Amino acid sequence: MVTKSTLGIGIDVGSTTTKAVLLDAKRNVVTQYLLATGASAQKSVQKCLDELRKSSQQDLTVVPVISTGYGRRQALNAIKSVTEITCHSIGVHHLNPEIHTLIDIGGQDSKVIRIGTDGRPLDFELNDKCSAGTGRFLEVMARVLEVSINELGSLSLKAKHPSAISSTCTVFAESEVIGRIGTGESPSDIAAGVHKAMASKIATLSQRVGVKSPVSVTGGVALNPGFLYYLAQAIQTELWVPREPQYTGALGAAILALEGGE
Amino acid sequence: MSTPLTYDALITARQQEVQELIAAEHGLIGYIYPHAPLELFLAHDFTPILLWAEPKIPSAYEASLQTFCCAYSRNLFSQRSKERLPPLNAILFPGGTCDSLQNLGDVWRARFPDDTVLRLTYPVANDDMAVAYLAEELRDLSNHLEVILGKRFVMERYQKAVALIAEFKAAAQFIAVARIIRPSIYPYFEYARLIRKFLTAPSLNMLTEIESVATHLQNELRKEQRLPTTEALRHGLLAGHIPDQIEIQSTEEPRIMIIGGMVDPEGVAFHFNNAKANADLEDLEIAFDLLSFTYRTTFTKAPNLHCNPFTEMAQSILSAPAEPTQEGLHSRLTFLRRVFEKLKIDGLIICEQSFCDPDQFEVPDTLKLAEQKKVLSVRVPLDPEFSDRARLEGRIQSFLETLTAR
Amino acid sequence: MAPDATTTPKEKAYRKLNTSKLLRDTMTLHILSTKQASQQGRLAWVTSGFPVEIPVAFDVTAAYPEQYGAIVGSEKCGPLLCGFAEELGFSQELCSYARSSIGSVKNPQQSPLTGLPTPQALLACNNICGTVLSWYEAVSEMTGAPVYLVDIPPLEGDQPSHHLSYAKSKLEGLIKFLSQTFNQDYDEEKLIQVAELSNEAISLWTRALEACRHKPTPLNCADRFLSMAPIVALRGTQQAISFYQAFLAEVQDRVKNNVGAIVDEKVRLLWDNIPPWFTIYNFFNTLAKKGVSFPADSYTHAWSANIPRGEILESIAKVYSNVYLNKGLTAKIDKMCSLIKDYDLEGFVLFSVRSCKRYSLGQMVTKEEITRRTGVPGVIIEGDMVDSQQYNEAQVETRVEALLEMIV
């Protein structure tokens, strides 16, 4: 199908959250929605679509839907499923065509994408095997430090002497953090060490693709100021974070839906 | 020098020591696989330095090596990426020893094109043809040193080097055997340290230090009238066997042995010491070790200066005992059985380096033999960072508790 | 959801080879011959890169534990058999071919085909990796069969004369070993004949591989991985020649009639490494439905060198010293770049096999270099060839799809 549509919907079914975006023909966001994916991806997809309909007050039954993300095949009314690599790339390119390197950190995986001048990915690398370097790493550490995941970032920015966390594995790093709490290191120093370790891992992942400034960061972790601070140091470039970094995948999918799915 | 309190402090002290040792030397060539032709480098007026793993290095290998690459290789690569290696004129990689190091050499060349990367490919056999092959490889290496690095092989230097290395090995052998005879005679940790320091940067100073320890132990054993036994055992082990007439005295204390590959002996000793302290067994000492950087390096026959240097060095290198990178599992097991029997071993600590094929393949047959010979064993998976420190010490401690209860 | 497959549900996207029955029969006969040979005391287990012409010239039958590994993988018994080896104390970090082989020696009754028949000798050549020695020595401890290692150290660039002498000396040692173990004299004439038979099969096989330059390719990856069995296991025999004659004829027929291995070839890719045996059909046929074919791969292209004319042992030493896996990273990259060029491929998939350090380490560098030199994009997917526990279908799918999105 090559005919352009007046509206397009993108749904990003992640392992932690499901996001949906409704775009008009001019690629403006009409409305968007996010919820926790929970146990049933199909149910969260349906809920998203219902919310889009309610909020836009339009009948969306004939609007093309493109799905992306881990559970993309669970979006049964999608005309096509496209990988999140392509969708994030397109989404970020739309928001800022100057961006050539994109770092996306999800709950369970992280990826680095080199974006071409047409907004399509030229190269990418994924870390989907190891939880260190993903949102999960920070969740575990936040729990050990007894703060909420939202507080962890600002806590780390108060550090006077960031701890050196040397373990590359979440399990070992957790032991290390517990050890440091035991020896009386301040929570902010430890939090800083945790962010620094994660930033270092992401920096290494980025090297495999090549880092070209400015670099965009998306995904839930992009809302963490501590992580952004240490990442900027680790990769030595400017960082650009979209206003709503969790929606870029769904945005890219919605753009593709407008273009007829190609 | 007393054992530092924490592992961090140990590493910091070592790093400083390395800096000092290296600062005194010139023309550094780094090598990884312990059976490197040290005499050859010295003959060309280079200082061969063994590149140890750095436990605190942040990982920086993921862009170039997969996680199933051996942990040692990854650690070295991370060191290079973070520019934490000493200033080297060249780095020597082994070929034919294992697939991780084989690929590491190739990947290193690709990632660090300005580094001078040399390779010495080893045969897996040790017969005459293997010696001839390795001799030619050594000759090629020598040519490379001359052509690429501009320094010639000088016979006089070679002869001095042979003497230096041979004397170091003889001293190290003596201390090892003295410790077999009476483990309390000298701490295992200190023995490991002496060897490490010498291999870090071979020098007359370091030789003097280790020789003075050997001499001191010689005197002790002479007083105990155990010197002839010690020497007989040393010569036997150097020839690859244990003479029948060797009689080790039984003791109250269990006699413990460590076996493993390219793991850090000092690091292992350090964690063993912590474990034994936790088990209230302060006086217990390791009796014997069969590790790559200690026994397997020092119990090799020195070149004898009568023949072609390359053939002599090849023979010396291929005389390295008990290496799982070489052919001959069956003969290694036979030797190990003999060690259990004659050296009265009660307990065995098996160090298993993460993703090290030669180490890991050896373990099941070793365990089986230990069980047959009623030697209590514990398997200790390790990586160069000693990541899982607490669990590692816990394992050794449980092992010691069971061993001493027997 | 509208189907994005280009075929109707009833029609398959991939075509079966007519010679697949002949292949099955050929390999079944081979399996039977190995059982018989074992009973007669004339069976050797052999590594895939071994100069098998020599034992064949001694009337020794060869069985291939690596091929058995492929069977174990395809029967989805990898985790089970590897588990048996792990019970003996073999680490999970070790090669899964080795683990499953050792597991089958330990518990043959629970293994496919009740394991390989008992060997009288274990013949290893380390030109494919260093692990084989450790593996075979472990099996030797379990079975009592002696090991002979043809030690061929890794090479870079041209083979120096001292390397050739050494390799040749190992072949001479092999001859002595076989004479003693199997109580038979060496017959050089016989060896020359066997080498010629080997060459004939290899030439036929190579022509079949090269026919895949055609668009559409007459063979897809799975086709080649399966039909390589005789070239690995029956090299030097008439059976291999007979099979490849029929096989090549069918391939040429497809080319003549423009019949592709898959129904609608839209994208041509390169594959690197051993395949995931436990999901080989699913993987390649799912992609076939999307019009994706793999006209070339580095694995099946590794059995294409003829034994040259000249002194027979020296010639054999030369060929077996220069196999794909013995030549270092640069040579691998060169080979893959030329396959991409010669077969007009638009992308590549590097399978990072956790078990296989020799083949897999360095793929990150390979990926960058190939793209730099050829301009085509690639992707690394992770897993194992036998241990299905190391393979995550969803993750692999995402990566391959992302690659396809970059190409189309």
Low-confidence stretches of chain B at least 5 residues in length (pLDDT < 50)? none
Largest protein interface? B-C, 55 and 47 residues
Overall radius of gyration of chain A: 19 Å
Instruction: Tell me the series of helices and strands of chain B, N- to C-terminal.
Output: HEHEHEHEHHHHHEHEHHHEHEH
Looking at the overall shape, the CATH architecture of the domain at 23-156 in chain B is 3-Layer(aba) Sandwich
Q: Walk across the major sheet of chain A and give the strand order.
A: 3-2-1-4-5
Explain what the structure shows.
The complex is a heterotrimer of chains A (262), B (406) and C (408). Chain A is of the alpha/beta class and 262 residues long. Chain A folds into two domains: 98 residues, ATPase, nucleotide binding domain (Nucleotidyltransferase, domain 5, 2-Layer Sandwich), CATH 3.30.420.40; 143 residues, ATPase, nucleotide binding domain (Nucleotidyltransferase, domain 5). In chain A, helix 6 packs across helix 7. Chain A is globular and about 60 Å long. In chain B, the strands form two sheets. Chain B has a four-stranded parallel β-sheet, sandwiched between helices. Chain B is an alpha/beta fold and 406 residues long. Chain C is α/β, with parallel strands linked by helices. Chain C is 52% helix and 10% strand. In chain C, helix 4 crosses helix 5, helix 7 packs across helix 13 and helix 14 crosses helix 16. Chain C is globular, with a radius of gyration of 21 Å. Chain C contains 17 helices and eight strands. Classes of the chains: A alpha/beta (262), B alpha/beta (406), C alpha/beta (408). Chains in contact: A-B, A-C, B-C. At the A-B interface, helix 6 of A face loops of B.
